[in-house]
Amino acid sequence: MKKMIISVVAIALLTGLLSDRVLAQEPVECEAEYSVKAGDWLSQIAQKYYGEATAYEQIVAANNARSDDEYANISSPDLIEPGLYLCLPSAPMAAQQPAPAMANSPQLVGPIWQWQQTQMNNGDLFKPDDPANYTVQFMTDGAVAIQADCNSVRATYTITDNRVSLAMGPSTLVACPEESLGDQFITNLSSANLFFFQAGNLFIDLMFDSGTMSFSPVSSELAGSNWIVTAYNNGREAVVGPLADTELTADFGQEGTLSGSAGCNRYSVGYEASGNNISVGQVAVTMMLCDEPEGVMEQEEEFLAALGTAATYEITGNAMQMRTADDALAAMFTRAAAPATEPAATEPESTEPAATEPESTEPESTEPESTEPESTLADKMENEITLVQHSFNPETSHTSFVCASSGQGLNGVVPDSAGVRFVGPNAGDFDLWGIVGLFQVDPDGTLTFVPERTGGKFLDPNGFEFRRISLSRTLDYFATGEGRWTGDFGLPGRIAKCDPTNQ
């Protein structure tokens, strides 16, 4: 009986050893192969690929199991040499069971990330002189706000696990200084692949292991931020920039006080912010009188009035907009590199007679020009202008025209259930500030302004480029005159009998 028990135990032990050997000999599946670069360490690589630094243990085990072929045996996890090839196993245990995120762990979406540098694996290093000019913010709706030096770019993004990809959209077209890294910044972001965090900073590895971008977070809080005004509503249905040789600033204190320079005088006012809503109280200003540059006192009055109309604000990267309760633009800002200088001590000039009254009331003569009924342009487009349909024959390279709306504007265009129509103003009757634009009329009646059909581009007040614009936004831009056309003129169509006066 004892011999039988001993035999069973021996067989069981032998079976266990054999099963362990069989399991150990099963090949490890490598999901990816990684070439070690200078400065790499295993926990960093694990964080990049699996989102968990402790997964480095699975990398060690996988490589040691396959050290008999092209993968090196890792005797010490703290020592890996550049040039080694690592087997990155699929579905490591650490990736299957990630540690719960800490409440204060950094998040890709939401914060404004300021570019610090891009280290390319060929040794090239791109480091901006002023990181504040290069920011990226991933929004919750899938949009990305990018500030690339002197240009703003809109993009979209997708995230899969710890991989991110960006699709670039419209951009402003400002000519940046020659030493700008704006193009390099956009090129790097377009190649984004893996992202991870270390010490609260964001790192984005580029495709093909070509390099790594590093970012630090920027506060998106209004309180404690400092801004320079780039444009404001002058109260006459126009958004204008500050006069040359003047600077308008806005410093939002932690205790609810907004202060800054109004171009001549210093101002101070209380503010309350909740979410994206803001209210600005009664402003107090110093009493200095400035006579240069011309119009500086009028600018001051208009800017402070615009601040008082602010109802909402939105911070996007290093830019901020304030809008009124009617969603009209009140003011635009760019983030200041440092807080504005302290207010100068009140000088004797502040007691001078209030001679500002005659000067501030003189430029009334400018009002007639600024109050022209520009809104009638949009009204005419909707209800009055004559429109002709443009039909291009690619075989003959000839464009033919037929009457589409005789003096009834866009509302008079009848959709064609058989296909899309392209209509434009009858030449000589109406033009869009010297251009002949086309509208696309879909079978369901949807109207879209399509400047791309005439070889041009349309820029909104922020300089974002559009090749196609919805009708509502088009009419809004035309009514205010805030849009801007670039490119070639359109091809005019002229049908005299389409003119209602000739019928």
Describe this structure in words.
The chain is an alpha+beta fold and 503 residues long. Helix content is 19%, strand content 32%. It has 10 helices and 30 strands. The chain has helices at 2-25, 42-50, 56-65, 93-96, 182-190, 296-308, 356-361, 367-370, 375-383, 471-480, and strands at residues 30-35, 85-89, 112-120, 125-126, 134-138, 143-148, 151-160, 163-171, 192-198, 201-206, 211-218, 226-233, 239-240, 249-252, 257-261, 266-274, 277-280, 284-285, 312-316, 319-323, 329-335, 387-393, 398-405, 421-425, 439-441, 447-449, 456-459, 465-466, 469-470, 484-487. Strands 12, 13, 14, 15, 16, 17, 18, 19, 20 and 21 form a 10-stranded antiparallel β-sheet that branches. β12 (226-233) and β13 (239-240) form a beta hairpin. α9 (375-383) packs across α10 (471-480). It is flat, with a radius of gyration of 32 Å. The termini are far apart. Mean pLDDT is 75; it is low at 1-25, 93-105, 338-375, 428-435 and 488-493.
Shape verdict: flat
The Cα radius of gyration reads: 32 Å
Measured as a percent range, the helix fraction is 10-25%
The helix-and-strand class reads: alpha+beta
Distance between the termini: 120 Å
Number of E-type strands? 30
Return the average pLDDT rounded to an integer: 75
Main sheet properties: 10 strands, antiparallel
Beta-strand residue percentage: 25-35%
Provide the low-confidence segments as ranges.
1-25, 93-105, 338-375, 428-435, 488-493
Question: Helical stretch count?
Answer: 10
